[in-house]
Design goal:
Layout (H helix, E strand, L loop, with lengths): L1 E8 L3 E2 L10 E7 L3 E14 L2 E2 L8 E7 L22 E5 L6 E9 L4 E8 L16 E15 L2 E2 L5 E6 L5 E8 L3 E12 L6 E7 L8 E4 L6 E6 L5 E9 L7 E11 L50 E2 L6 E2 L2 E2 L1 E7 L2 E6 L4 E4 L5 E7 L8 E8 L9 E9 L21 E5 L5 E7 L4 E13 L2 E4 L5 E10 L9 E8 L2 E8 L17 H13 L5 H9 L3 H20 L12 H23 L5 H17 L4 H26 L7 H25 L5 H19 L21 E4 L2 H4 L12 E4 L1
Parallel strand pairs: 11-13, 22-26
Antiparallel strand pairs: 1-10, 2-10, 3-9, 4-5, 4-8, 4-10, 6-7, 6-9, 12-19, 13-18, 14-17, 14-19, 15-16, 15-18, 20-21, 23-24, 24-33, 25-33, 26-31, 27-30, 27-33, 28-29, 28-31, 31-32, 34-35, 36-37
Length: 759
């Protein structure tokens, strides 16, 4: 055949240590139909400070692959919520081959067409809280590239038509495909009139959605006559691929015929007619590829004599043949992103008769619905049982309904199908099922009522069970509970939701309390972070006593907003917010930096109010630019220290003596205060982690407040030079008073008023 090669690539992204699914990097690819091989080239490289990170440590990178929806991963081996189905995925760990670069290759032969998702992350770290900009961080960048090779012009088989083929000696195999429409109960592929040098040296392989593999359903035509391969309960609305492969070492040409028969569920004794007047009547697309010159017309599909449509049927496997039951559709009601309710007509109470199943279909839109959680709930109405021991079984299957008439073993699986089983009875009247990141397409729910007897389950007589059925799509499982936050994430044009847990809780729905913080621990951490701000009371008292009223106001502002910011910033349930979180955080950061600014300006003995206004404006601008950036916060502080250094140097030069002049001021105030402040900065920058945050940050509060009490200068002494006293004003007159008399330099008895002036 003719091969076409397609290339796809994605932009490199920075990987993060795994904490929850919200911390992974997700990549979305689309593999076209008829792809015979897909090769992912996984490129990973290190960066540090804009250059190659040769000195960065090697950290393993885990990559997950899944078709149809994102992978549901659990690298920390946490517990999933109850009634949660975990779909499987394939994981690959990359190791480093070069100091700053590594490349991995992942091949998939005959991959399933459609959406593929890659998820990548770094191992979980120790949770160190690093100050942004303090040092060059090692970055691990990941870039996946996809190369696909697909066949074009694959021959299409039409049901009921015979295709003749001669396989030349240099050819190894022939590939065909046939489209299976909805409501097909059986696909039968047959090789006829096979002639070769030694009988019929052919293998017949059949697979849905993609070309067959070595482990696909296979039949050796040499050993089986006639050479027929049947597929019961095939996937609806999909291509089935037929591979006729020659035995190795067979000489000469092998000629044969291939035909396909599709069994209509509504007419189990009849095959589908070999030719229908339009592609719509076969639910087949108009474009097929090479079909040997057969073209389908555009005439309308046939209808019944009364111009009424037949009920939509489904197959039921039975030893006596197949029967069909109607499929009831559901109404889709979109409330929000990943918030969709599926309503049943004349529901939500559903009657399950004893002689036939009740079948419903739930349609999930491609790409749009795969990033949420599919929820299903069954509740049995006890009053409808009439005293019988009735059990209602439900089978949820993807792309084809499955209802078995075998009463001895109730299962939702076959050799080629796998589904989810639900059951409700008088003992357990409620059953739930949650499927995170479900595959899109049609999901079929088949409900069947059976009565329990001594010999197993048997069909009930004259008992119609009634169940309450609820199906909906939600962003997260139970909205992540009280110890988690459901986040809506985006990668390019793909949306998905994931839980981000807090207070030590883990798991897909934040329900794993193995490492959870107790209520007492949460209360203790909140009280420590809040009450440690009381240490600002002594600096406030010192500032008021020294007549530094503006500084005292800033310290009160800092103490107030730091207390309530930490009361609102707690990860658990001990939380109290008086304002919006962002407002509290901004005021806390602004108050902390303003405390440093006004303290340094006070130490410089500079009183112009313009310096305080300048600091407030600079710090507000820096916090608005980057609230966690190191230099945006450190720059104004260094600027204030520079002003203080200039002021002290000027005084030292003018007085020709070191300033401050007394050694006691240096030994008992400035040096201890500077050491305490330096210790606080070192704890904040290098010691603080997520585990010790509550007490290390509380110590930071104590040290910073204590350093302010040491560094704040004493009250300034009044100047010894006495200037002229202000003129006293009388009522309507300006009194000209002898200044010497006011200063006590002359005898008041002999002194006279120089003049009395009218205003």
């Amino acid at each position: 055949g003719l091969f076409v090669t397609d290339y796809f690539t994605r932009t490199p992204r920075k990987l993060s240590p795994f904490r929850s699914f919200a911390s992974i990097e997700l990549f979305h690819f689309h593999i076209p139909e008829d792809t015979v091989i897909a090769v992912w080239n996984l490129i990973t490289f290190k960066e540090q400070g804009g250059t190659f990170g040769d000195q960065c440590p090697d950290r393993s990178i885990t990559v997950y692959f899944r078709s149809g929806a994102p992978s549901v991963i659990n690298p920390l081996h946490t517990h999933f919520p109850r009634d949660t189905a975990v779909p499987g995925s394939f994981a690959l760990t990359l190791t480093w081959t070069l100091p700053n670069r590594t490349t991995g290759v992942f091949n998939v032969t005959s991959p399933l067409p459609g959406d593929w998702f890659l998820a990548a992350h770094l191992p979980k770290d120790e949770g160190k809280i690093s100050v942004k900009g303090l040092y060059e961080e090692c970055q691990y960048l990941f870039q996946p590239q996809l190369i696909v090779q697909r066949l074009v012009n694959i021959a299409v088989l039409y049901p009921g038509h015979v295709t003749e083929q001669s396989m030349a000696p240099h050819n190894r195999s022939c590939l065909y495909k046939v489209f299976v429409p909805s409501y097909t109960s059986r696909v039968l592929v047959e090789v006829l009139r096979c002639h070769g040098a030694e009988g019929c040296p052919l293998w017949l392989r059949v697979r849905a959605k993609a070309p067959p593999l070595h482990n696909s359903t296979t039949l050796d035509c040499w050993e089986h006559t006639p050479c027929q391969l049947a597929q019961d309960l095939p996937f609806w609305q999909h291509w089935y691929y037929v591979l006729v492969e020659k035995h190795p070492g067979v000489p000469g040409t092998v000629s044969f015929q291939v035909t396909v028969q599709l069994t209509d569920c509504s007419r189990p004794s009849l095959a589908r007619p070999p030719f229908l007047p339009s592609s719509a009547s076969m639910n087949m697309p108009h474009s097929f590829g090479s079909a040997g010159g057969l073209a389908l017309g555009d005439s309308p599909p046939p209808t019944s004599p009364n111009d009424t449509k037949h009920p939509v049927p489904i197959p039921v496997t039975s030893h006596a043949g197949e029967r069909c039951w109607p499929v009831r559709p559901t109404l889709r009601n979109e409330l929000d992103t990943f918030s969709v309710h599926f309503y049943i007509f004349f529901g939500p109470n559903v009657s399950v008769p004893p002689d036939r199943p009740a079948v419903f279909v739930i349609n999930l839109l491609p790409v749009l619905d795969s990033g949420g959680v599919l929820n299903l709930e069954l509740r049995l109405n006890m009053s409808s049982l009439c005293g019988e021991n009735v059990t209602v079984f439900g089978c949820l299957n993807h792309e084809v309904p499955l209802t078995s008439s075998d009463n001895s073993s109730v299962t939702c699986e076959t050799e080629s199908l796998a589904g989810f089983l639900l059951s409700v009875n008088a003992t357990a009247g409620l059953s739930r099922l949650r499927i995170p990141y479900p595959q899109t397409g049609s999901w079929y729910l088949s409900l069947r009522s059976l009565c329990a007897t001594e010999h197993g389950f048997e069909p009930c007589t004259n008992v119609t069970a009634e169940v309450y059925l609820r199906a909906y799509l939600s962003p997260c499982i139970n909205d992540c509970g009280i110890y988690g936050q459901c986040k809506l994430l985006r990668t390019n044009n793909y949306l998905y939701a994931a839980c981000e847990c807090k207070a030590g809780w883990n798991g897909w729905g934040c329900t794993d309390n193995t490492e959870a913080f107790s209520y007492g621990f949460q209360l203790l951490s909140t009280l420590l972070l809040c009450l440690s701000n009381v240490m600002f009371v002594p600096p406030v008292a010192i500032a008021v006593r020294s007549h530094y009223l503006l500084e005292a106001a800033v310290y009160i502002f800092t103490m107030f907003f730091s207390t309530f910011y930490h009361a609102c910033d707690q990860p658990g349930i001990v939380v109290f917010c008086i304002m919006e979180y962002d407002v509290l955080q901004f005021c806390d950061f602004l108050g902390s930096l303003m405390s440093v600014w006004v303290t340094v300006i006070a130490m410089a003995r500079l009183q112009p109010i313009v310096l305080y206004l300048l600091g407030a404006m600079l710090l507000s601008m820096a916090l608005q630019m980057d609230r966690h950036g190191l230099w945006n916060l450190l720059g104004p502080s260094l600027f204030a220290l520079g002003i203080m250094a200039v002021a002290w140097t000027a005084r030292t030069i003018r007085r020709r003596h070191c300033y401050p002049p007394t050694w006691k001021r240096w030994a008992f105030y400035l040096c201890p205060g500077a050491l305490i402040a330096a210790a606080a900065v070192l704890l904040y920058a290098f010691v603080e982690t997520e585990e010790n945050y509550f007490y290390i940050h509380s110590i930071w509060h104590l040290l910073i407040a204590g350093s302010v009490g040491f560094l704040l200068p004493p009250r300034a002494k009044p100047s010894r030079r006495l200037g002229p006293l202000p003129r006293r004003k009388g009522c309507g007159y300006q009194l000209c008073v002898n200044e010497q008399e006011e200063l006590g330099l002359v005898d008041p008895a002999v002194a006279s008023i120089n003049s009395i002036c009218t205003s």
